[in-house]
Structure formats: structure tokens, C-alpha cells
Amino acid sequence: MPETVTIRGEGIALDLLLHRRYGVRGRQLLEQTYELNPGLASLGDYLPLGTVIVIPDLPAASSTTRTVITLFG
Fold it and tell me: Which helix (H) or strand (E) holds 18?
């Protein structure tokens, strides 16, 4: 379920907000966040105080299986 966040600090960019919330994987949500918040890109690099943003949920991590090849075994 998407989360609603209100900006309460200065100098916060959207990518920083997503990184603080989800870590490195938050970068993949940048485009989806802009789609959920029309007009957000027009606010500039740093989000103004009091801006309300809807942040999408982080998709489930894909569990891929990798074959391990050993050189000496």
C-alpha cells in the first residue's frame, strides 16, 4: 500500500528520500513516484517544506538462482 510522506526538512531531494526509506533499492522507484505525484518534477531539485508525496511500495525482491562454478573443486 503506498505511503504518504510530508516533507519536514530542507534540502531533501526525491532520490534522497527514497534512499532513506528503502536503501539502495529505492532508486528503482523514482519514475513510479513521479507518476503517482503529477507536478512533482516541476517543484525543482529540492522538495519544498510541507510537500505531500505518495511513495509506492518497494516491489518484492526477485529470488534468482545462480549456478556457482568452482575452479578447484
Answer: helix 14-22
